[in-house]
Amino acid sequence: MKHFLYWRDRKIAFVPGEMLAYTLFRECRGGAGFGKSLGGQTQGLFCGIGACQGCLVTLEGRGSVESCLTPARDGMRVQPIQELTDGPSTTESCNDDS
Ligand code: FES
Asked: pTM above the 0.85 mark?
């Protein structure tokens, strides 16, 4: 059975037991990152241990979370953090359809 969550409304698969950051890293192929921070820095997987805040994303129902410490779950809806306050992103992030 495959497992899926939603990144920017796009359905993506994850491996049960993995942290959300690794799902997004694989989906983004390590390239464009997870969007931009409110300060304009590229978000992505950096330390992997909850120390740098570089992997913050917005999780529906919870607000900003460290994706490296958040287990991927079926049906969760995730978006870059800048979209929480600014609406759809105008900056580069993976799976950017614009
Ligand atoms: S990658 Fe550093 S806090 Fe998640």
From this structure: no
Q: Is 6 exposed, middle or buried (0-12, 13-18, 19+ CB in 10 A)?
A: middle
Give φ, ψ of 26 to 5 degrees. -65, -45
Q: Using the mean position of ligand 1's atoms as its centre, give its distance from the Cα of residue 2 in Å.
A: 26
pLDDT at 1 over 80: yes
Cβ of 6 less than 6 Å from ligand 1: no
Whole-number Å distance, alpha carbon 75 to ligand 1 midpoint, is 22
Is CATH 3.40.50.10890 the classification given to domain 3-86?
no
Confirm or reject: Cβ of 66 under 6 Å from ligand 1.
yes
Q: What is the mean pLDDT of residues 78-88?
A: 70
Ordered by start, the domain boundaries in the chain are 3-86
The answer, yes or no, to whether residue 85 has pLDDT greater than 60, is: no
Q: By alpha-carbon position, which residue is closest to atom 3 of ligand 1? A: 50
Count CB-CB contacts under 10 A for residue 10: 12
